[in-house]
Amino acid sequence: MDIRKMHEKPPYGMIAIMFVGAFVAFLNNTLLNIALPAIMDEFSVKPSQVQWLTTGYMLVNGILIPASAFFIQKFTNRRLFITAMVLFSLGTTLAIFAPTFSLLVVARMIQASGSAMMMPLLMNIMLTAFPIERRGAAMGIFGLVMFTAPAIGPTLSGWVIEHYTWRTLFVIVLPISLSVLVYAIFRLRNITPNRDMTLDLFSLLLSTIGFGGLLYGFSSAGDKGWDSPIVYGTIAIGGIALLAFVIRQLRMEDPLLDFRIYKHPMFALSSAISIVVSVSMFSAMILTPLYVQTIRGISPLDSGLLMLPGAVLMGLMSPITGRLFDKYGARGLAIIGLSITIITTYYLSKLNLTSDYYFIMFIYTARMFGLSLVMMPIMTNGLNQLPMKSNPHGTAMNNTLQQVSGAIGTAILLTIMTKRMESAGAKLFAEASATGNVPTAADSLALFKEDLESKAMLDGINFSFFIATLVAAVALVLTLFVKRVVPPKNDAAYEDISDK
Questions:
Q1: Key word Transmembrane helix present in the record (predicted)?
Q2: How far apart, in whole angstroms, are the C-alpha atoms of residue 312 and residue 326?
Q3: CA 214 to CA 124: how far, in whole Å?
Q4: What are residue 496's DSSP bridge partners?
Q5: Are residues 266 and 150 in the same domain?
Q6: 3-state secondary structure 203-254
Q7: Are 265 and 251 found together in one domain?
Q8: I need a surface site. Which of 332, 462, 472, 485 has the fewest CB within 10 A?
Q9: Segment-wise mean pLDDT, segments of 10 residues, the chain, 500 residues
């Protein structure tokens, strides 16, 4: 297939069905979050065990996404997508009927092995199917799926759990994934180029230990504490393995993940901004429900509904932002978006024990609107500077860094919240003791401690939001150096794409 002809008439039907497959895969990332207590009750497992349903899913993503550059170049997009949907559907089916908790964890990991390929594969197809001057709009549509699907997960999950069992969540997903699979088998064709490559198993091992160790270590820090040997041990091992992985890739002629793409300054800058923005974005997704549910006692469903408008708006804005990017570039959009993000995050650092529900919803929604002007334009601007042969490496790198930075940022901000909460609690207790306001009766003392804990946690959450405000300010400073790139010419190897 001539790539010029494809640019004149992109395969919209094929891309649409891939979007549906990606949507259910992304939806599945957050679908179980609110269902975890129900699963704990059914299988009689502890919180530290049930977390493996999300940790295991995340680890498989962290292991496979870095290797996606190899798979996308080695195998046709048709074969990869069908394999991904088969694995995802198989995992979903096993989850519906899983008789034990261990099998449910295995089912989630099988699901993850399919969904891990979706984002880098679809991003690579978008970069190949659309000419440079229309990539912003195309990637904006992709953003609609990427941001909206995970946001719907908690709200849908909360409603289903109130009326049905947690297995219904998988029953809803299965028919959609099977329909996409059947369509893909009969209608999907190849539009991305391939070449003969050999998988370097040692690089894959280092990547698995490196990214897997970092993700597991930082994700476990909030539960186990930073002084746990499992936490600092896995982070240390992951860091050493990752360093060895990077050195090995730089020395290889045909690396698993090409770090030489960072010689392109706008791609390097876009990666740095994306990392900082991811830290700020994920913090609100964790801290806001923590405040709403733990301090205010609002139900999980209402907590999900509070966050839903912001996520839906972010998704709906993504295609609009994409078109604005094609016309004006990334810098202006990102400066406006990050300014809104900084102001709204600062307002979230001023919450109190009686902050209005709809005020919080408005601020959170406005914050997500600001972020919608930043994420996809900055990412697309960086990818536009890469030659087409480097697109698989660029998409793999972006998705990997988003996973890792999200986990690291969340762990650090939760730690900041915990430490601040401890110091605030001690200070409040000392002040009450000094003025003789600590009750002696058992019932009154229990209420006093509960009130003190709420005030201390509020102080910790507010302080973490303030740190997130400073993080967003760092991203704004970096954005000032963004330039609109002139993309390189298409590689000769991409002029003729086999229709195998």
A1: yes
A2: 22
A3: 26
A4: 2
A5: no
A6: HHHHHHHHHHHHHHHHHHHHHHCCCCHHHHHHHHHHHHHHHHHHHHHHHCCC
A7: no
A8: 332
A9: 60 79 82 78 80 78 83 88 94 94 93 87 81 76 74 76 87 93 87 79 90 83 80 93 93 88 92 88 76 80 81 84 88 95 94 90 92 88 87 86 79 83 85 74 73 87 92 94 72 43
